[in-house]
């Protein structure tokens, strides 16, 4: 998601993310429509002009992890985002990715048909002094598709507040808290859930960065599903806007709760590679 990334770790690579949930199978009709929609978003991002505060990115990753949990049943994802930032500090953006965690809750049948995540967000970025910056905003995660009667909507809205301390040109330390004002990704009675994200980014050589991330997910009314996640990544950025990142992540999530209908533990330790192009 644009520069807003779901995780505050400013991985110079992809606009990537993931969600807390347990399971995965695509209904063919919805899958093809979602691929077309995602491709359209990617093309719009690529066509976005690099002036007037507009920026964008396209990324291909081996696994879409959000807060340490695979959103694609440990399979690759194509992602794209675009953002407009005004000189005043206000910004607005959109981001999208293929997903499968909702449809993967069943192995057969098409009671759930959803294979696309579309996010929209707006916020304000500012500075307080020379080395401290802050970011406040609202973000909505939207999952188009068809769901059985009585299914609790996975669509989620969070408000967030983050701060970054940059004591030098090569080091930044970030802290961000996200608070859900709706049920969190389909968990019943879970509004008021929170996620705390801490990050450290160090440019140790020109074009090379080390990214450290640690996070804690709290889920109101669903304490058993709460967990901690962490990540270590190295990013190589090139002058032409391309970047490559290699990351290792893990969680302490309960295996029985985060294993989907296909038998895959979605919150397991994972090594991912991501190629992205910024515009």
UniProtKB/TrEMBL annotation:
Keywords recorded for this protein, A-Z: Membrane, Transmembrane, Transmembrane helix
Entry-linked Pfam families: Gcw_chp (PF09694)
Protein name: Uncharacterized protein
Organism: Lysobacter enzymogenes
Ranges for region Disordered: 1-31
Organism classification: Bacteria, Pseudomonadati, Pseudomonadota, Gammaproteobacteria, Lysobacterales
TM spans (from-to): 38-60
Family annotation (NCBIfam families): gcw_chp (TIGR02001)
Biased amino acid composition, Polar residues: 1-11
InterPro entries to which the protein is assigned, alphabetical: CHP02001, TAT_signal
Keyword Mitochondrion appears in the UniProt entry: no
């Amino acid at each position: 998601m644009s520069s807003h990334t779901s995780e505050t770790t400013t991985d110079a690579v992809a606009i990537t993310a993931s969600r807390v949930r347990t399971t995965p199978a695509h209904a063919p009709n919805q899958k093809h429509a979602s691929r077309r929609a995602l491709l359209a978003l990617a093309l719009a991002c690529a066509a976005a002009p690099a002036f007037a505060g507009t920026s964008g990115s396209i990324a291909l990753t081996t696994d879409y992890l959000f807060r340490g949990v695979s959103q694609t049943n440990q399979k690759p994802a194509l992602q794209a985002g675009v953002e407009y930032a005004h000189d005043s500090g206000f910004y607005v953006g959109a981001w999208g990715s293929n997903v499968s965690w909702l449809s993967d809750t069943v192995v057969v049948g098409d009671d759930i048909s959803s294979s696309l995540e579309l996010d929209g967000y707006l916020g304000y970025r500012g500075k307080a002094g020379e080395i401290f910056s802050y970011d406040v905003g609202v973000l909505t995660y939207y999952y188009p598709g068809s769901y059985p009667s009585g299914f609790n909507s996975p669509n989620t809205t969070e408000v967030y507040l983050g701060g970054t301390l940059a004591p030098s040109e090569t080091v930044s330390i970030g802290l961000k808290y996200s608070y859900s004002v709706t049920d969190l990704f389909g968990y019943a009675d879970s509004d008021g859930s929170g996620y705390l994200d801490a990050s450290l980014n160090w440019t140790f050589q020109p074009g090379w960065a080390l990214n450290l991330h640690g996070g804690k997910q709290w889920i109101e009314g669903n304490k058993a599903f709460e967990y901690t996640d962490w990540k270590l990544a190295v990013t190589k950025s090139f002058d032409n806007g391309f970047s490559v990142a290699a990351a290792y992540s893990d969680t302490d999530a309960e295996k029985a709760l985060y294993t989907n209908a296909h038998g895959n533990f979605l919150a397991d330790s994972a090594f991912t590679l991501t190629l992205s192009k910024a515009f």
